[in-house]
Amino acid sequence: MVRLPAPTAALVDEIRRRFDPIMAARIDAHVTLVHDVADPGRVAELVGRAVDREPFRVRLTHADRWGPSRYGAYLHVDDHDGAVHGLHEAVAELESPAWARVEYRPHVTLVHGRTVSEEEAEVAWRALDGFVAGWELTVDAVDVIELIEPRWRLVERHPLRPATAG
Predict the structure, then answer these.
(1) Tens digit of pLDDT for each residue in 18-58?
(2) Are 49 and 90 in contact (CB under 8 A)?
(3) Using one digit for the tens of pLDDT, what is the confidence trace for 99-147?
(4) Which letter, b or e, does each residue of 71-83 get, where b requires 16 or more Cβ atoms within 10 Å of its Cβ?
(5) By 3-state DSSP, what share of the chain in percent is helix, strand and coil, each rounded to 5?
(6) Which residues lie below 8 Å from residue 136, measured CB to CB, with a gap of 6+?
(7) From start to end of 4-162, where are the E strands?
(8) Is the terminal CB of the chain with fewer CB neighbours within 10 Å at N or C?
């Protein structure tokens, strides 16, 4: 995952705590790179190679949902130079086969379908429909996390290569 830096994390968490306080308490605001790692033994190797790049900027844009509201809502990531997609591609083989048919879409989850009711998801979507964040941030590290109930915990942080003096 790519943890969102302050103050962007605070802005995202304000939304998350309002509409999905359970997930907001379980995991920090982040850009998802892969879902459900199937091969934890290779994480350090693949992430280590993936971060051999300079920090880069992205913009969080409009709210969207994964089909019906009950599946969750998220912010799109304007990945104009493809850097987030590149990070995903570098570690995608770690992802559970269940996600193999799902096209990767850089995103920041706002409402998670596993932690809100269908009614709560509908209320959230009515409030988020049409919302455009427009928040820019610098990505400078990739975090490896694991679920230790009830919360996701940092396993290791992989900083991106420092920018070269030009």
Answers:
(1) 999 999 999 999 999 988 888 888 988 899 899 999 999 99
(2) yes
(3) 776 788 889 999 999 999 999 999 999 999 999 999 999 999 999 998 8
(4) ebbbbbbbbeeeb
(5) 35, 35, 35
(6) 8, 57, 58, 59, 60
(7) 30-31, 56-65, 72-78, 107-112, 132-139, 141-148, 151-159
(8) C
In the chain, the amino acid numbered 119 is E
The owner of tokens 């290569």 is: 161
Domain edges within the chain: 2-159
With a threshold of 0.85, does the pTM exceed it?
Answer: yes
132 residue type, one letter? V
Tokens describing residue 112 = 């998670």
The tokens describing 54, both together, are 């300079």
In CATH, which superfamily holds the domain spanning 2-159? Cyclic phosphodiesterase (3.90.1140.10)
Q: Which residue's structure tokens are 């962007």?
A: 8
Amino acid at 69: S
Indicate the length of the chain as a whole number.
166
